[in-house]
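Contributing: when you submit paired examples, paste them exactly as shown. First protein:
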Amino acid sequence: MLAFREMLGHIRNGFPSRWTSALTISLLSVLDFISFIGLIWWFAMKGDFALIPGAITILATIYLACVAILGILAFGFGKLRSVRAAVLFYLSIGLFFLLNGILGLSGRIFSPWPWILIWIFTLGVVLTNFSREYYGQKKSPDDEGEG
């Protein structure tokens, strides 16, 4: 719980106003939950709970609209590279499902393996930037002279 509170404080400090940080935290939470559920559905439950490709396309479009709002906040107002990298991660997930829905409408099979490599890479970028930002925030001015 303490780590979660520290992460939220880190995100709050990366945005100039309270409404931008609150909207960013809300969008990150919603997109993270939806991404998790969507990927679990795709890899584990797609056969049991099938969705028509049109529904996948519509849901992916709504998801990408939320990603666009997060992108405007992250690139226009925020200064955290980790949040900007998270936008790219969510964008890749949204595009994955959008392409899956569009190709499903024409009856084509969609391979997830190139996308898995993209997700691993972007998550690595997110975590690397977050650890650099978080460590830099916790570093005191006295520590910078040592080394």
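Second protein:
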Amino acid sequence: MRKIVTNMVLLLGLVSGLLAQPWVVFSPEVTLNHQPFLMDSLFYGANFYRQFSNIAGLFNDRNSQELLFGNRLAYTTGEYRRPFDPGIVNNQDYAVQITKPLSEKDLFKGYFGYHRRVDTSVKWLHQSRRVDWVPFLLADSSTGRFELNGLYWSGEWAHRLNRQMTTGLGMYYNVDKALKQNFPKPETNHRDIHVRLGFQMQLKHWQFGLQGRYFDEQEIVKITRYNLDQNLTPVLYKFRFSDLPMILTGKTSEERQVNYHGQEIGFHLSRPIGSHWQLLMGVEGTHSLGNIQDGGSQPIPQGQFRWLQGRVKLVLHQLPSRKMQFRFTYANQFDDFTADHPEFAFRILQQQAFVQQLVGSIRYRYPNRTRLFLDLGAEQGWMQYQDLMTANYFQYRHLRLILRAGGSAFFSNRQEIRLWSGLTRIFTYDIRRTANRYSEFFDILFTQRWDYYQNQTGSFLQGVNYVYHYYPLLEFTASIQFRQTLSDQSAWEFQSRQNWILNLWVKFFIF
């Protein structure tokens, strides 16, 4: 399955989830982004930095020096899952982040983190990234447990040229290693490098922004030398399409390398409308290429893919008022994905997808510092998939309805509690599909994944957040979220997928 289908797995149709990027970034700040938009005033700030990741907008996002450290724990389990998803996922992040002015014209923000992930009951698959849309997979016939450990860091620097112009420069780096705990014990290594540039200019009432990103990501799978005659390891498979695997036998040592790189260019603008509203708009495009090869010192091509992505986002935000605040967010995304045969000038896969979403958000503030939050939204998506090797095709549309509600209140001068809930309902229609079955692998690689998405009916979310304000020194935050994906009961016998997320963060205000 491909990009837009993956969006259907998301438990809530947030715009942040809608605008899913084709690259991988670990960040300590994306912690509570499933709560109502205006409840999280930091992550959904009305500026270029928060809405479009433009480093030049960092001055508009931060007004103080901060030191943030803490951890995020996520635990996922449940039988309603895709065939290659782990049975249990235990994800952990520990990070420290600092925001500090270097001078009157320079602002620095950076973070350093440790990432650990344990995947239990992983069926077959050795590769761990983009397995839903890249048709070149390395796998074996076993089910096992993967343990991943890694480090990541990021540095961002914003420089003010004058009152009208600001520039930004940033770099991100991640390295990690995952090892399967049973034969043939594949070792999966990731190395990610991102370089970002930003520019922002103020011209009377208009504010303009430009940003660019180059990303280079690499995934290498190494398999220990083994001998099938000794029954020490399962059979090794190479899937190049939705079906028809290549089965490897005999004594061998395998290595697979996925090189993936691309560029993003974005243009942004902002303008006040009257005295109470602000309009933000962003148009972004991404072009990326991936090459898969085996063999190490003498690489053998295994295929290549291309991904074009376009995004548009509009935000109409009411400037802060004493009681009421509104925000309307519209976003759409278009994807064009193709993959080519490694040996012949032949296109083996083509996919196009489009999704758009509209969300209205309200915040109401009472005189006693109690606040209520509400999000209402709808998402419409279309996806078309063609596997030219097995002559299979499907197309469908979906409609997702979104409701999120929450509230926050101070029950002492320093202590604040926040509660929120969310519901989504998914309707799938205009379904067209072929089923040219060539082997038993087709049921797993095509049919089971298709059935998973078609039987998803909605999701449920519940969250609580406790904040202790000790101004002007520090702020402590503890939160827990429960998310559940729901399926068609008649087809899946009440199966579901549950996700628990725990966050503990301490923020120091530095003078």
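If you have annotations for the second protein, write them as plain sentences, like these:
The first strand starts at residue 65 and ends at 77.
The mean pLDDT is 87.
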